[in-house]
Amino acid sequence: MFILHRIHSWLDAPVGLEEDAVRQASLINLLFRWGVIFLVATLLLWPFVANSQNSRQYLYISLVLLMGLFPVKFVLNFGQLRMAGYLMAAVFWLTFAIAALVSHDGIASTPFWALITITPILAGFINGTRASIVMTVLNWGFGGYLTWIDLNNPVHAVPYFEEPAYRYLALMIMASVFPLIVYVWHQNLRNALSHVRITEQAQAETAAYRVQNEQLEEAVATRTSALENSLTREQLLAAKLTVALESEMQLSEMQSRIITVVSHEFRTPLSVIMSSSDLLQNYYERLGEERRETVHQRIRDSIFYLTGLLQDVTMVDKAQRATIQMAF
């Protein structure tokens, strides 16, 4: 299990790269994996096609490509992405070029066809449109060299249905379309990635707006609750003030009544005291003992009455204060 994990980590390396570097590294890893699988399958199937005319040539090409892919992977795992891309393009170009050079078919050979079709696309997808153009220019030069050999060296002379120069021009003009294809692919990829970034940014902004709206709604709800609580407290306070005002009005009315009653009730005993004191002062000698005692008793009764009246007023005032305090 540990070995499988190490192999998987080695195949996925490198990690922690930027977006463009991750895309390039993923493409190189993809080509490495499927290239190794395809080449190993080719080597396993080689005994079944060993009797074909070009079987040995295909065997050598498969072995060279298989061995060339591993240095590319090692360079990639060291973080040299650009170097790994150039190395992979160079491995494929040199392998097909050497195979086409030693082949007696010249520009009609399968390695040359693979050279002019695979290498511009491979280099373009990994390293960009410029690399595809460079590969196409190299293929033009190498194809011209093979055509020159076919025209001037009888050993490499190959029967063609058309002139070698025309065949060369037709093949290379057709192969020159591949850089344009690579350019269009990169443009579409950039546009797609741009749309993805815009979509992700819009989603992030939408999520941020949603969070802000939720925060605002929460703040509004909190503020509304605080206002409702404040309004409730004010209503309770207003009710208490109303009760206090009513109590104060009742107190004022009661005080007015008390003053009226007390002033009326005070007059009678005071008049009695006044008249009795005048009677004693003016007619003390003329009054008999019994009469004087009666006058004195009347004065005392009036005083007791006034005292009781004052006590009643005091008790009423205390009761009113207690009632008002409890209501408030």
Describe this structure in words.
By secondary structure, this protein is mainly α. It folds into 2 domains: 174 residues, no CATH class; 123 residues, Helix Hairpins. Helices cover 86% and strands 0% of the residues. α3 packs antiparallel against α4.
**What's the Cα radius of gyration?**
59 Å
Query: Into which percentage range does the β-strand content fall?
Result: under 5%
Number of strands: 0
Order of helices and strands: HHHHHHHHH
SS element count, helices:
9
Largest sheet: none
Strand pairing plus helix content: what structural class? mainly alpha
Coarse shape: rod-shaped
Please estimate the helix content: over 70%
Uncertain spans: none
- Spatial gap, N to C terminus: 82 Å
Mean pLDDT: 81
Number of domains: 2
Task: Give a short overview.
With 328 residues, the chain is mainly α. Helices cover 86% and strands 0% of the residues.
Characteristic terms for this protein:
86% helix; 328 residues; Helix Hairpins; rod-shaped; mainly alpha
Sequence-ordered SSE layout with sheet pairings:
Elements: H1 2-12, H2 19-45, H3 55-77, H4 81-102, H5 110-127, H6 129-152, H7 164-175, H8 177-283, H9 289-327
